[in-house]
Write a structure and sequence with these properties.
heterodimer; A: alpha+beta; Uridine Diphospho-n-acetylenolpyruvylglucosamine Reductase, domain 3; Alpha-Beta Plaits; seven-stranded antiparallel sheet; 18 strands; B: alpha+beta; 3 domains; five-stranded antiparallel sheet; 15 helices; 32% helix
Chain lengths: 495, 411
């Protein structure tokens, strides 16, 4: 992984920068000790590591503003960081950059039940928002697997999804407002408790911008009433094809389940051995289909899904009879990553999205690649929205295995794009998929995206080296060659 | 005299924009032209009529998406979706009648460029939430695309969000992909009669905050209710608060009963079935209950306020009083349509002050050209945000040839 060459001049000024940070953030909010910096040497993508120049943990928007103003004036890069659970290396430190951690922004500022929203600081965990409103029957819908640890600010930066995004949307569909600090230290507020912030949809643009545009210091999210009830079906299939057909048939019947997850045989076995959820071990693919909503609706739809499953060749069907049983069904899926972690020293988690009907085809390709590279793979899959999570198993102590695993992953993602899908459904591009962006986008496509960055951060100091494979100077991106001449009439009909 | 260019494909759009950028000639981007009166009134540039870029490209019902050329008529798209029991869940408003035009004349590109949404906004979002990807020509005269055909996609910046609601000021979309969803099997509307506006907001909050999956909640004060074509609504002779539930038959019946129970004692309760529900929600969606431009004796001006739901009635009642107007509420009170007696300044200072106090933004949707030339149509932006807006415009359209000034002066 090639990162921009660290600026030796900045590194040489480290003591002066640390002192400037200490003048802004007093006490223990500035971490400069090499041992302590190790805690920040990577995010959830542990294959890539490096020490930051210094870590700063501000507590107020004013401090964030002063830090950024200083960095902007002194041409110092910053890497924003939430809880550090990201899976694409978006918070990978750089030797010449300040890692700006938002962990101390950990308060819920307001709960407004009548307007159905919560105002929180960015370091509040995803689950803490639900915990804050659940006594009144509300919850926050996006539920990434890391929801115990991941922060709402990080969720906004990555546009996180989760198992319920098929029905309830991604982070982007659930955020109402933001406060952010631009690279020059200016504080901007977008949206609020109302819908559709006026003007250009910067709220939408910031969501999923991977820390390249602004540092988020406050978030307003929608809170939803918890569905009256939820029930799940556990359905086993003799082949990936039949499971894929079942998914397509459910959607085709006009049913949008609250969640629809799939696991392949290696993932089923790893999970079952870990949490003993009672999964059938003699099937090739397992679906968990959850229906939620009013009881009358759920009962009605469970029956319809059950009959679709039988028609598409299900070999095993179990319907949850209690909420406890439903949670047991989910326990295997929710623990699939750590379960795979137990059977392999390391794994890489990929994140492509594909058209649903290509599922069996893509799984076949993955299995062929697995043989080609000699690396095992387990697949978990947000089947309802086509978001695939192949887990590539490898051993980092074996020097060429990481390299092989990365190549394997890249081949999977290329194939996802080839069949009409995309590189990443919810984990972000970060550094991990940066060099694959050209598989999806032309140079012009990427340059236009980078021009948007230039509007926010003309010096390109915020999280450089992430998302885009080639850094262009903003002046170069802005240059435009115009052609004067006659309108090519009559090629274009004119009235 | 304005002339119009009528490209027949994306390649010709590219040629036209390259030429305009070279000459510095402003273009007015037109899909089907049904919303030409929406936005600031500026010197009309050379028209770029996209009606030649029409037709559904790919429609895959099981993959829940459709790709269509930008100027494909909404009516054509809706008809294709109906055949598969699907819909655009964000139910974009048809603003044609509000502007004095005919119904069903809008295009998909126009709906997205204006980020339209209907009463279901509270549950499923606006055009921005359903817009998956596009191909476009930037004001730089370059073809670029973003997004894809799958719903879950975080690859690169989400330029679809940026283009939705940009009123053609950043790029000319030539092809768009959007999410489609199953149409509900059944619809019921619970009506509560005779509530004052503030009590209606509380009632709507109660319904929207219940577990009964309400898909929309609107409140029609007496005058607006009286204009409805639905006899139960017009004949009520009182204000009408409407709560909609949709979905599979048994579920809808169950929820409708539960809502009636929940709202018992708030006021007299009625129930509309599917056909009447559809008619009423269409009237609410298109804001026709405020009276059309033609049929409206006073030629009233129309504002659209987006505020926190509980702040809607407070803001609207004061404005209605001060500006001799009337309000109509959607989105549980968070969307206020406000019709006021026409004034040269459209009462914009009062409207903006009320919105600033409530938190939110206001758009002057309908007013004569000379008013929309003088009065800020969109919510004025704080200094730094305005600068960011101008820089984004510069990044996409440095020569300022795409709908310049349509949203903000100089943008």
């Amino acid at each position: 992984m090639r990162m921009p060459e660290p600026d030796a001049g900045v590194i040489a000024r480290r003591a002066e920068i640390v002192a400037a940070m200490r003048a802004i953030v007093p006490g223990e909010g500035v971490i400069a000790d090499a041992d302590e910096l190790k805690a920040y040497d990577c995010d959830g993508l542990m294959a890539y590591k490096g020490l930051p120049l210094v870590v700063v943990l501000p507590e107020t928007t004013r401090q964030v503003s002063r830090i950024l103003k200083y960095c902007d004036a002194n041409q110092i890069k910053i890497v924003p960081r939430g809880a550090g659970t990201g899976l694409s290396g978006g918070a990978l430190p750089m030797a010449d950059a300040i890692t700006l951690g938002l962990g101390k922004f950990n308060r819920i500022l307001e709960i407004d039940f009548d307007n159905r929203c919560v105002v929180a600081q960015p370091g509040v965990t995803n689950l803490a928002i639900t915990k804050a409103v659940e006594h009144a029957g509300f919850y926050y819908a996006p539920d990434p697997s890391s929801q115990i640890a991941c922060s709402i600010g990080g969720n906004v930066a990555e546009n996180s999804g989760g198992v319920h995004s098929l029905k309830y949307g991604l982070t982007a569909n659930n955020v109402l407002g933001l406060e952010m600090v631009l690279m020059d230290g200016e504080v901007v507020r977008l949206g609020g408790k109302h819908l559709d912030a006026g003007g250009y949809d910067l709220l939408g643009v910031l969501t999923g911008s991977e820390g390249l545009l602004g540092v988020i210091t406050e978030v307003t999210v929608r809170s939803l009433q918890k569905p009256e009830t939820a029930r799940a079906l556990l359905v086993g299939f003799p082949s990936n094809e039949s499971a894929g057909n079942c998914v397509a048939a459910i959607i085709g019947a006009g049913i949008i389940p609250g969640g629809m997850e799939m696991m392949d045989k290696p993932a089923i076995h790893a999970s079952e051995n870990f949490v003993h959820a009672g999964y059938p071990l003699d099937v090739q693919a397992l679906l968990i289909v959850e229906l939620d909503g009013p009881e009358a609706e759920v009962d009605h739809l469970i029956g319809r899904v059950e009959s679709i499953a039988r028609q598409t060749g299900a070999a095993y069907i179990r319907v949850s009879q209690s909420d406890a049983e439903r949670l047991v069904f989910w326990s295997g899926r929710k623990n699939a990553f750590p379960a795979v972690g137990r059977i392999s020293p390391d794994y890489l988690c990929m994140d492509g999205t594909i058209p649903r009907h290509k599922l069996a085809d893509v799984l076949k390709k993955i299995s062929a690649l697995s043989e080609h590279y000699g690396l095992r793979v387990a697949n978990v899959f947000h089947a309802g929205d086509g978001n695939l999570h192949p887990l590539i198993l490898f051993d980092a102590n074996n020097p060429d295995e990481l390299d092989k695993a990365e190549k394997f992953g890249a081949d999977i993602l290329r194939y996802c794009v080839k069949v009409g899908g995309v590189l990443t459904g919810e984990h972000g591009v970060g550094v991990e998929k940066r060099d694959l962006m050209g598989e999806m986008f032309t140079e012009d496509d990427m340059k236009q995206q980078q021009r948007l960055k230039c509007a926010f951060d003309p010096g390109q100091l915020m999280n450089p080296g992430k998302v885009y494979p080639t850094l262009h100077r903003c002046a170069e991106l802005g240059r435009m060659y115009v052609h004067h001449g006659k309108l090519p009439f009559p090629d274009i009909p004119r009235f | 005299m304005t002339e119009t260019l009528k490209p027949k494909d994306a390649a010709q759009v590219l040629e036209a924009v390259k030429w305009a950028a070279g000459e510095g000639t402003p273009l007015e981007i037109l899909g089907r032209g049904s919303k030409r009166g929406f936005g600031r009134a500026v010197e009309p540039g050379l028209g770029l009529d996209l009606s030649g870029l029409s037709g559904i490209g790919r429609y895959e019902p099981n993959e829940l998406f459709m790709t269509a050329f930008a100027a494909t008529p909404m009516a054509e798209i809706e008809a294709a979706l109906r055949q598969n029991n699907q819909q655009m869940a964000f139910e974009p408003a048809d603003l044609g009648p509000l502007f004095g035009g005919d119904e069903d004349r809008g295009s998909i590109g126009g709906a997205i460029a204006c980020n339209l949404a209907g009463p279901r906004r509270v549950k499923v979002g606006a055009a921005r939430d359903h817009f998956l990807g596009f191909s476009a020509v930037s004001g730089r005269g370059e073809v670029f695309k973003s997004g894809g055909t799958v719903v879950k996609n975080v690859t690169g910046f989400d330029l679809s969000k940026l283009l939705a609601g940009s009123f053609g000021t950043l790029a000319v979309m030539t092809e768009v992909t959007f999410k489609v969803l199953p149409a509900p099997e059944k619809t019921r509307t619970v009506l509560v009669l005779g509530l004052p506006d503030a009590a209606a907001a509380m009632t709507m909050a109660r319904a929207l905050g219940s577990a009964h999956e309400v898909s929309s909640a609107a409140h029609l004060p007496k005058a607006a209710a009286g204009r409805s074509q639905v006899s139960y609504v017009a004949g009520a002779g009182r204000a009408v608060t409407a709560i909609r539930v949709e979905g599979p038959g048994p579920s809808v019946e169950h929820r409708c009963r539960a809502l009636k129970e929940l709202l018992k004692g708030k006021g007299e309760i009625e129930e509309l079935h599917s056909e009447n529900s559809q008619a009423l929600w269409r009237e609410i969606r298109d804001a026709t209950l405020l009276g059309s431009a033609n049929g409206d004796p006073g030629g009233r001006q129309v504002w659209r306020l987006s505020v926190p739901p509980m702040a809607g009635p407070g803001a609207a009642e004061a404005l209605a009083r001060d500006l001799a107007g009337e309000a109509l509420y959607d989105w549980g009170g968070g969307l206020v349509w406000l019709a006021i007696a026409a004034r040269p300044d459209a009462g914009h200072e009062k409207v903006r002050a009320a919105v600033a106090a409530a938190g939110g933004h206001a758009t002057l949707v309908r007013a004569a050209d000379e008013v929309r030339a003088r009065v800020p149509v969109f919510e004025p932006q704080a200094a730094r945000l305005g600068q960011l807006t101008a820089r984004i415009k510069q990044a996409f359209d440095p020569k300022g040839v795409l709908n310049p000034g349509r949203m903000y002066e100089g943008v």
